[in-house]
Amino acid sequence: MSDKPFRAVAIAAAWLFSVVVQANDDGIKINTGHLEENGELSWARDYAVVPFAFYTDNFGFAAGMAGVVKGAWQPQASVFGAGVMGTKGTWMTYLRGDNFQPGADSRWLLGGDAYNADFQDIDFYLGAAAGNNSSADDAVTASAYDARYRLFARYIFPLGSATENPLRSLALERPVTGHVPWQSGITSVEFRPFYFSRRFHDSPPLPDSEFAPADEVWGLETRLEWDNLNNEHNPTKGSLSQLTVTVDPGSDDRASWWQWELSQSWFWDLGPAGEVFDQQVLAVNAYLSDVPGWNQSESVNGNSLYHRPPEFARASLGGLFRLRSYQGGRFTDRSAISYSVEYRVMPDWQPLGGWPVFNWYDVPWWQWVVFADAGRVADEFNLATLNKAMRWSAGGAVRFQVEGVVVRAEMAWGEEDSRFAVMVNQPF
Which portions of this protein are annotated as coiled-coil regions (predicted)? Predict the structure, then answer.
């Protein structure tokens, strides 16, 4: 077996944890489907276990181990696991399985993940400190234990590219053959039962918050998605539409709540620019979310509690995907809006394959990016309010595909601070 899978896992593992810490994203997903010219799917089958090390402000010097199995029991399925411990006492573990098909002709793909972490002396933005008019100095330095457990059950509708074979939803490249779901792309609905918790320990008194005081939530996230992109790693045309509804039915000691999120991305191929750029792409994302029952209440154990989630379960701005010059979870309130625009170019000049260290890897392309983000949160759902006094970020990035993993290095500037980050996956 080639040592290239070992290198790919090392790259993915080294930055997985910054992704999980700073944003409530989808974690690492391993897609290995390749659509052959004859229309058949082929799958990469590899495994690797590697040690890794890195340094961040949250971890200090950190070391850990990661492993991946591509083709785990089934050709299209994968399992990823990793653990890390830092010199500042922060530790984290993550385990994920994806794309298990319960039957040969089934349109269901099953999976799940489990994440646990203990953060030592981390800045948290709570209560008024997470509002749109807050200051970076309002942060509370505290220690907390985080946990997240989810199951995934995704149903692929017999539409578009997946009319005959649901596994075409896992192909990394697909032609865009229309502008409606029944003509093109992959339409799916995914059900994600979840448990989230955050418990502070050894911390100073925490500020009052309009969010629920619960330290755990149980619920169901339902995501309806239409993926009409021509390439998962480097889309040049098409769109991605997602509607997500999250419901916590409540319990004897916490109120029920629900929220919705809408994310829409578009991509336009601007063509080459002479002998300078082989590819130019304009990419745009718009995001909107709300907790409709925010000002409604119910009686729980004799107390009147609002239908609101705790802060750690609420959609937020800041981190690796929205308002990138701000810390993850920097802004949180009842409603949120965000816009991002990116100009992505692929230079004709690609020297990475000949550089030291890079020449150990398969690096088929690199990409230069300039981007701008704008967004805000508010304590009411009002589009006029949400589009006023918005926070902003702007920056540049270099991204490249390494052994099938997209790595991005970004520098973002904003009103409060500037942030440099290295991570995996495109932001949208």
Answer: none
